[in-house]
Design goal:
Shape: globular
Strand content: 15-25%
CATH architecture: Alpha-Beta Complex
Largest sheet: 7 strands, mixed
Helix content: 25-40%
Strand order of the largest sheet: 4-3-2-5-9-6-10
Structural class: alpha/beta
Number of helices: 7
CATH class: Alpha Beta
Number of strands: 10
Order of helices and strands: EEHEHEHEHEEEHEHHE
Distance between the termini: 19 Å
């Protein structure tokens, strides 16, 4: 479990405490952890947070766990269609200017949105941050990933991605995407490859600036 543009034509995003956050939690058979993920999203220290949980046809007790949260969250219950469809279904309901796809076995820290807002600016495709490794009881194990070795600049990441088709980036839960960016690439489909966040991560340096929190 993790405690996890080149053009500036992207629609200008609001700054500071005017930003709205949406956390989308796709879930499939993670009844043991999904409640912790939801709790962490609901506990974020920010005035405008929307939490959406998409259950992708779980056969365990996930839906019972999700139901306990009632109207504190928005819920999509669908037949099993895969992670792409879960992303798409959640995004259809999203109202946020900033969107995090939180894996259902990951957690967000209370201060995550404050840290994102501190460096947010128009033209960003995403803000990325390191993930802290924890055990099944959410106890820190003393390591983080990836190791950025200083916050790389957007142009540096763009050149890196163009030359190697990859760049230093965390997996899904360590990325806060701008709505203006996601509007350009969603809905996702199987052409994106696996895992489901591959397209969101891969296209980010080319359709906006990637800002890095290395703390």
């Amino acid at each position: 479990m993790n405690n996890a543009r080149h053009d500036t034509d992207l629609t200008p995003q609001m700054a500071g405490d005017a930003l709205r956050l949406t956390v989308i939690i796709p879930n499939y058979n993670y009844a043991e952890f999904v409640g912790q993920a939801i709790d962490s999203a609901l506990a974020i220290d920010w005035p405008d947070v929307q939490v959406i949980v998409v259950d992708d046809g779980s056969t365990d007790a996930s839906r019972q766990v999700i139901a306990r949260y009632g109207e504190r969250i928005e819920t999509v219950l669908q037949a099993n269609a895969g992670q792409y469809m879960a992303y798409n279904a959640g995004y259809l309901l999203a109202r946020g200017d900033v969107v995090i796809f939180l894996d259902s076995d990951d957690l967000l820290e209370r201060s995550v949105m404050q840290e994102i807002a501190a460096i947010w600016r128009p033209g960003l495709s995403k803000v990325q941050f390191r993930l802290r490794v924890v055990d099944g009881a959410a106890r820190p194990l003393g390591s983080t990933f990836p190791q950025f070795h200083g916050a790389p600049q957007p142009d540096e990441l763009r050149r890196w991605a163009a030359a190697t088709t990859t760049y230093p980036t965390p997996p899904g839960s360590g990325n806060a995407y701008s709505r203006a960016y996601l509007d350009q690439i969603l809905p996702l489909d199987e052409a994106c490859g696996r895992p489901g966040d591959s397209c969101c991560v891969a296209a980010a340096p080319f359709l906006g600036d990637v800002a890095t929190i290395d703390a």
